[in-house]
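Lab notebook, bench 4. Still working through the backlog of constructs that have no structural model yet. Next entry is a single chain of 293 residues. Request: give me the structure tokens for it.
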Amino acid sequence: MDINLNFLRSFLELAETLNFSQAAKNLSMAQPGLSRQIKQLEESLQTTLFLRDNKRVRLTQEGQFLKNHITPLLLGLNETLGEVKRLSDKISGRITIACPLEIGEFLISPLAAQFLEIYPDIEVALRFVSMEQSQKMLLNGEADFAIGLDFADQENIRSYSFVKQKSYLLCSNKDFNVEDVKDLNYAGYHYEDPLIIKFVKSYSPKLSVGNINIKFSANSHSAIVDYLIKTPNVVGVLPYYSKPVIKALDNKELFMIEDYLLSSDLFLLTSVEETIPLRKKVFLEFLLKNSLS
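Model written out:
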């Protein structure tokens, strides 16, 4: 038997007041609407719950029985629903961000520390992986946010411009001479390093990716920087927003070669959801408000 909960709440209000006009007022509804609900409830239960005459409204024996037993059940239900509402209003839970180590250390970690001062009941977990892996984690539901070099042209991923970064052509030989960027030997994050590819193609748009010479690759800026310091005939294309890069530049172990640079965006990626959890909503708003875009 399916009984509308609103009908039961209307029944209890009328059972308390024994006055249709007052009960309808308390329920913020019209009296005819209340009368229809009580009639439908009685029809569903196949019994009379109230006796009505021109002077008063009285509970029948069945009506009194229903009132006695349904009152504590509805009170308990209201308390449960109220607790659920309080839990949903409390901003808590875990947020997982998948991103490369250098971006996490330089950008995300400091922002997360500021965010947690405002929302101490939320947990933030950083997972250091490549950008390619970070998007896979996002799509698999293993991460709430990811970082990408490109706008994700997918229906189930939303992209936000997060950081405008400059990447420089770096070498340990400050007098390194560049005749043509497509002929250089590179050290990069990956054997198809997207920054190097973007950099070279910004000068030689028609060059095939397979013709770019990436002699050394490591998914660590520290390892790339160490290799560049020890190998003066190899160059790298690395972003300034990286602790190892800043340190090497400050110590004059690496140098920016002439005016070669690449300006690009980093994107904050998140999956599309019908209803975004409150913790994700406030974290997204915080990151975008404090972004470097």
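Notes after review: The mean pLDDT is 90. The chain is about 45% helix and 25% strand. Flag for follow-up if needed.
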